[in-house]
Design a protein that fits this description.
286 residues, alpha+beta, Beta-Lactamase, Alpha-Beta Plaits, 2 domains, 5-stranded antiparallel sheet, 5-stranded mixed sheet, 12 strands
């Protein structure tokens, strides 16, 4: 019982602690003597509350844990809850009703597996070269932004296509080309707000989602700053890279009633920017 890797706590019908192991004390960092016969489940949860990470969305709150535990009945599958502690560890909590009306709760340290899971998710949603969101991560955020727009949170979308990148890549080679793409990503990121989403969609194509836009100028002004900065020669790996950028810009739900329609219309605006001689910003036509 004391040699297993999980922390175990058994509570009576009255939700009083009757049996526990040493692993429970070490996992939760319980003070000496805190775990004792008759300890109320509510007191254990309150202690747990003091350890939970405060960042929004990182952990199940004690109220959620308490509600989940209160709903457990005979024959029901044990719920699986996760709690991220302030020290960075993540605990998995499982609970099940036992025949005498009591409750069996187990705690397991799943920190390593959660980190591996988070790393895999990050890799799946980010561009390996620039560290920006990739197309998959971008689409996930774009769809979420569209949902938010239904509750009075309109947003802007800009698509960027570098002008002259292929010539730089051909002349100076892929290492310089890769460094240039990273530089472009940093320039775009530096000109938008911290909460906006910057993505590399592939090749020399980038995108920005301007969240919670209530005035088109909130997106047009940074887009033009990016245009101006990318029109200047960039020194990359000791080489002067001369590129430019064409930008298509639109707004949701002002310019489209779906994500697919918005992408199509902004892409058309980008195409118009290229046809106009490149190096310009074109808004979706009214």
């Amino acid at each position: 019982f004391d040699n297993i890797t999980q922390g175990v706590a058994v509570f009576t019908r009255e939700r009083r602690l009757s049996t526990w192991n040493h692993r429970l004390e070490t996992l939760l960092g319980l003070p000496k003597g805190f775990a004792r016969e008759g300890l109320a489940l509510a007191d254990l949860l309150r202690f747990h509350a003091g350890q939970i990470a405060t960042a929004g969305g990182e952990a199940q709150t004690p109220a959620v844990l308490d509600a989940a535990l209160a709903a457990i009945g005979p024959g029901q599958p044990p719920p699986r809850l996760e709690s991220r502690l302030a020290d960075g560890r993540t605990l998995e909590i499982r609970a099940a009703a036992i025949p005498n009306g009591g409750l069996l709760i187990t705690y397991g340290d799943i920190t390593d597996s959660k980190r591996a899971e988070d790393a895999a998710r990050h890799m799946a949603e980010h561009d390996a070269l620039t560290g920006l969101k990739n197309r998959r991560g971008f689409m996930e955020i774009l769809n979420g932004a569209a949902d938010g727009a239904q509750i009075e949170q309109p947003f802007g979308l800009a698509l960027f296509d570098l002008d002259g990148f292929k010539a730089v890549n051909d002349r100076f080679g892929h290492p310089v080309g890769d460094a240039l793409l990273r530089r472009v990503g940093r320039i775009i990121t530096s000109e938008v707000r911290g909460g906006d989403c910057v993505a590399r969609l592939g090749g020399d194509e980038f995108a920005v989602i301007f969240h919670a836009i209530h005035d088109p100028q909130d997106a047009e002004v940074p887009a033009r700053r990016i245009l101006e900065r990318l029109s200047q020669p960039l020194i990359v790996e000791g080489q002067a890279a001369h590129i430019g950028v064409s930008i298509g810009l639109g707004f949701y739900p002002l310019d489209a009633d779906s994500v697919e329609a918005l992408l199509d219309r902004v892409d058309q605006a980008l195409y118009s920017a290229k046809k106009k001689g490149k190096g310009c910003v074109v808004r979706v036509a009214a």
